[in-house]
Every structure is written in C-alpha cells, then in structure tokens.
Amino acid sequence: MTFRELELFLVVADERSFVKAARKLFVSQPAVTQQIKKMENELGFSLLYRDKHTVELTAQGEIMQNAARSILYTYNHAIADALRNSTSEQSLSIGYLGQMNLTLLPEIMKSFQLRYPNFSVLASRVRPAQISALLEQGLLQMIMTPYDFVANNRVLSFYPLYHDRHYCIMNKGNPLAGAEHLSCKDLAGYCILVPAKENCPDHMRTTIGILESKAIGCHFELGKDSDNVAFQLITSDAKVAIMPSYTAPSHPDLVSVPLDDDVQILTGIAYYQEMTPLEKAFSSTAYKVLSDNR
To answer: Whole-prediction pTM value?
Structure first.
C-alpha cells in the first residue's frame, strides 16, 4: 500500500463521497472507486459502506482513517525535518510557461526557502513544446504547466495544484475594459485573437467552440504568440484576446477581465517518474501558497 493510496482513502473518508473526492483529487470517479476496491482486497476487509446516495466508514474504516492520518503526518513531518536539518546545499531547477504565476511564483520560492534555507530554486521560462525533452533529459526537475500540455505523455507524471481560467485581454480604450467580468455575449461583433493551431491547447479549443456555438457574430484571428497579440491589442480597440492567465501579456496599456465560461484549466507540476523528497516539499509548499491566495 502506497502513501498516495492512503491520501486518496483519507479524502474519500473525509468527503464521504466518491464524486467529491474525485473532484478534489482531479481524477475520475471510477479511478477512485477502483483504488478503494484495490485497498480493500489487499487488506481483506471493507473500508466503506456505499450505496447510490451515501458513503460511510465501516468500523475497520474508522480505525484505518485514524491510522492513515497518523502515518502521513509522521511521514511528511519527518521529510520536512530532515530537509530543514540538511547541511548539504542543493538547488531545484523548475520551469514555468509564459507569464504563468509570475505574481505567485516568487512568493512560492520565498516561502520554500524560508522553510528549507539550505536549498535554492532556479526558475526558467519554457515553451510547451520543450516540456517533455527538458524533463526526460533531466535538464529541469519540474515544470509548472496546464495539464493539457502533458495529458498525452505517458512518461511524465502530474501533480495538480489549482484550476485556472480564461481572461479577455484588451486595450484600455476598449469599451469593455471597465467591466468586472465578461460573458461570451459581451464579445459580439469583436475580432477575437486566439492562438495559432499548433500552439492551441485543448481548453482553448473548447472555449473557441463555445463562442462559435453562441453565433454572436464575432470573428477569429490567429495570433502567433503573446508579444504579437499584445502589439495588435495596443493598436486596436476593436480586438480582444482570450487567454489563460499563464500566457496573458503584461503591458501597462492592456487590461485583463475574467471571462465567465465553463472551461477550467487544470494547472500543476509536471515531473519525470517519481518525485524526490525535495520536489515533494516544493510541491506541497506551492499548493499551500496557491491555496492561501485562492
């Protein structure tokens, strides 16, 4: 039985729901059910009573819940204490996409180094096409990325952190610039700048599909990269770019307004094979910082 299995069991036990646990863990509900069945087969007893409407712990499940919480607490704190008391100086090399987390990444790094003063973090900006090679060749240990860019890579693993969303980027002179948030209908008649096909992730294609289905009269224009898009927006009040926050151009003449759509972008950390204790420490620090700022 692995620590990951114990963590999954605790989420199911705390949520009293396979569906809620699956959402929290960013996995499918059948995957959660299958994992619990595997644990029960291995242990030789049932952990949960379940029917169509309720999930409750068995007597053995309650004992395992307390034991799992104690085991994970001891394990995680032992690793943290060992890293904090390490006398060796090591560095962790990570990557990030575009403008992704530029406001929060420094806070994550600062928080990590306060906890683990003998370890440093080196961060590099990367492009989506570079992710697999950089991780598989060991040039970077971890990369903060949307799940879309590694979903089809069976070699890489993924540690989920949070859900991102799409934003409408526009010139300050655009009539929509003063809104707190925008709906798809607000974009009627505008020229929408979207990524070129080779740089367009699945979540962006879904958003484009939603806009097209609304038949609101907007038209689309392909942008090559964030710098190209920024130039077009600055020089026109009739254009709007739709981008996730990790690629949004940062320029004083541009405004970013959240788009109220149903597409969420699962964002986290991609890594090769298994995480080392140091990488786990950074991941948990990132999760805490992002959760506190959510």
So the answer is: 0.65
